[in-house]
Amino acid sequence: MVRIELSIELRYDVAPPGADFVFNIHGAHTRCQIVQSEELTLSQQVLPQIYTDPATHNRYLRLSAQPGPLTVGYHAVVQLHHHLARPQDVHEVPVARLPPEALSYIYPSRYCQSDVLARLVMGEFALLPQGYSRVLAIQDWVRRNVRFESNTSDTSTSALDTIQSGRGVCRDFAHLMIALCRALSIPARFATGIDYGADPVLGPTDFHAYVEVYLSGGWYIFDPSGTAIPMGFVRFGTGRDAADVSFATIFGPVQSQAPRIAVHALADPLLRWEVPYRREEAISTDV
Amino acid sequence: MVRIELSIELRYDVAPPGADFVFNIHGAHTRCQIVQSEELTLSQQVLPQIYTDPATHNRYLRLSAQPGPLTVGYHAVVQLHHHLARPQDVHEVPVARLPPEALSYIYPSRYCQSDVLARLVMGEFALLPQGYSRVLAIQDWVRRNVRFESNTSDTSTSALDTIQSGRGVCRDFAHLMIALCRALSIPARFATGIDYGADPVLGPTDFHAYVEVYLSGGWYIFDPSGTAIPMGFVRFGTGRDAADVSFATIFGPVQSQAPRIAVHALADPLLRWEVPYRREEAISTDV
Amino acid sequence: MVRIELSIELRYDVAPPGADFVFNIHGAHTRCQIVQSEELTLSQQVLPQIYTDPATHNRYLRLSAQPGPLTVGYHAVVQLHHHLARPQDVHEVPVARLPPEALSYIYPSRYCQSDVLARLVMGEFALLPQGYSRVLAIQDWVRRNVRFESNTSDTSTSALDTIQSGRGVCRDFAHLMIALCRALSIPARFATGIDYGADPVLGPTDFHAYVEVYLSGGWYIFDPSGTAIPMGFVRFGTGRDAADVSFATIFGPVQSQAPRIAVHALADPLLRWEVPYRREEAISTDV
Amino acid sequence: MVRIELSIELRYDVAPPGADFVFNIHGAHTRCQIVQSEELTLSQQVLPQIYTDPATHNRYLRLSAQPGPLTVGYHAVVQLHHHLARPQDVHEVPVARLPPEALSYIYPSRYCQSDVLARLVMGEFALLPQGYSRVLAIQDWVRRNVRFESNTSDTSTSALDTIQSGRGVCRDFAHLMIALCRALSIPARFATGIDYGADPVLGPTDFHAYVEVYLSGGWYIFDPSGTAIPMGFVRFGTGRDAADVSFATIFGPVQSQAPRIAVHALADPLLRWEVPYRREEAISTDV
């Protein structure tokens, strides 16, 4: 079990006539992820709406800001109860036995055009033994073929673009891995959070994107960019790709400043709260 | 707009072999009720499950406690954005135009046996003009015919029992008002929270039960026991009656101590956060 | 696998100024119950609304009828795929491991006042070995203590009334069995359909009420009145008790005539469609 | 009011080892679209699963077929109750007031890359008066800039491809119109059905794709390819684009034959069932 404390501060300058925002920065409420405490602070006196998507459990915060500075703060302590499995016990699920709600994650989406990757996956992965190890092989392929490089992609960059350019950030690694899984009819979805344990060479703590793959009745976590420690991921949102789960979607004339983000583990050996570390087991928080 | 800070401490002694608990003490997330900050504390190292009912938005906390003392603490700051209307503008909705999700609140339930009150409501209320004023007339009738008296009812007391005995507590007032509304095909549901502004004569701050009635496209708040100030109610749960939304349902050998509850308004004239007061308008937080 | 063809004709005389109806006579769509074909006919030119409850999958038909005669016809062919288990393999689920959506079926409801049956079940059933056999023991107890007798109960008759009177119809047997199960914290719900295989001594084919109990991860079928063959039950609705799933709820001045109902199995040995028969196995259609 | 009778026959040759299918050819159940009768026939003895997506109400049919021929037949009579409005009364809804469930339809998707069309829509549509007329202007722009031509696109063709090629079929017209609406933050979704009233020059009756745009609290129908009569559209599915609502998604070695489709209106002047015609009013079936 892991306890993570996180705080986020987002700062904007809103120009007239004001702007609408949709944020997805609240910790999701799931069976394995308990939000022990949380606080939302807004520098403007506006009434936010918070709603939870019934299908994904993503929590969205929507508000209409006045012209002027806007600061959105979110602070939370979240408990994570990981489901661990031995990789050899984690299997692919045939299409005929997928639950209906997993089916939509085998279809192509804006940034994960799996429909045009059929030939590539046939050559690379079709003959591998099915199971967790095949998904690991896909992740390895992405790591071998894409180089992590900041500021090499933008909000229009898709999996196809990343294959061509051979570089990208965590979001691009995730999109490509998802597209490859789906091309094999393995449900895969985009997940967002904070890059707990971020590689210090790659920069300070930041928002993070990773992958969840449906195997053996649960959604297993993969971190294709390899820059962080999955056991410390607090899930904000899941969706088909980044179009579904932007941290912030902005409608109106707004200038954004760099977010301030902090995350750390509240370990306590007596209470058996662990510090996250890289594990060999398959990890899920949604079984 | 109102900001309410509340804290709850529930204390139990759990005997062997342990016990299961289901609590409904989290502030509901609705469009008009924003949980600005909240913190849950447990004295035992157990993993709680928190789940939100997709239909009611009630948030339930479930846990399995070990033998020994158990303290459950919940502290929150909640923002309330009230929808106000002039009573003469608030109408009853004909059955044919009720939304499907309101329909189940015209049927009888465990403690609100509306099916046997047809004759009573025909004589008392059927000829009154329809609308908010008729629902007020029902509330007045309950207040005239029931005397508030502590320790006069228990968990098996229903609306029929209360009509006979002529006394009860907030829960009994609520059940009877709901049963009378439903006997007229007016959807009414049971709501729980804390008795903000509690009448000091009737005792210290405590859990509270009140009524929401579906009128003019929203759920309007009524406080039939008249012991508190509706504008300060933070909603925990809504349901057909107390069977749906107990604060605590316990499975196993447990001794309960009196809960410690505190509630107050965080007013701020500059920021337009008001202190709740008794208003003339019809009030809704779920439109 | 079983195929059932059913037809229902409901006839009413609606007096001025007209009336509203809510019906629950459509076959539910579940994983195990496939509506192969269906047809709804109405003698009045009115636009019905059909909506499916997202939690129960009950399908409701709502319409506003004009004064005059109204005939509602429903004809369907439904496929049933039964999940069968050996009774000794079917277990009770501890409260701590019940899925959230099953929890509400251990609480008392209008006609199933389980909260006042604690002493009775402690004496009769608490010491029996847990599992399917204990639920059978409850069913046997109901059969021993209640005599099937037509026209001995009405819409206000509850489980407590039935214990006292010792007689009732299928609805009363179901309510009592449900109340007893819930008093032991075993989730039980009310189910409606048609009494396939009805005992000819007890009268012609009619609507039927039976029980589903949550065991071993599914809802298992029990027919406490023992008057029909569970393998032939097409499910219309499930709910906490009859208040949730009336075949017809009527608002307005209406005279009802006796319904005309027909049901039979479309067996076909070549295609392996069976004729329903009384089986030893535990049967579920919702696992 | 309109009654439509439709029948669909899909024929496949399944090669070993068999194949899985997901179909979306059932009429959706909505408040305005009533499935009066329907029948599903399968030439193979396989148990289909039918499930309804709780968010979209799309009904999916899933089955695992054996090697050999497979015929899937669907026949239904569907009633349509159109909501009509004068175009000048139909308004755009500001982002801040969109209901949560409409929000996801302003984000880009696989075939509707609205994120890269910002410049185009700024030049063409940003200065037009907001409302139904602006959406009509978008539809006109698509008709002027795309030529209907069979067999000019495939399952990978997106809105960007269609802008470049200047030709396509109904699906491509729909994707492009949706992408343009979303680039203006107007929610738009992809809808499927049958091309009632199909232009005989363009070929026999076939599956059809069209557009629903969220305006004034409802989803209004647009037929950008202009080849059919919207008043006769029976809705099968809605989704973000064709990736969500394929008529048939096939997993395995299968050869498809041309579908056989028939559709006609069951008009009856006495009963006020009309023959669909092209209307001036704005039309919605989901308000």
TrEMBL record, chains A, B, C, D:
- SUPFAM superfamilies recorded: Cysteine proteinases
Listed InterPro entries: Bact_transglu_N_2, Papain-like_cys_pep_sf, Transglutaminase-like
Q: Which residues form a coiled coil?
A: none
Domain named Transglutaminase-like: which ranges? 162-226
What name does UniProt use for this protein?
Answer: Transglutaminase superfamily protein
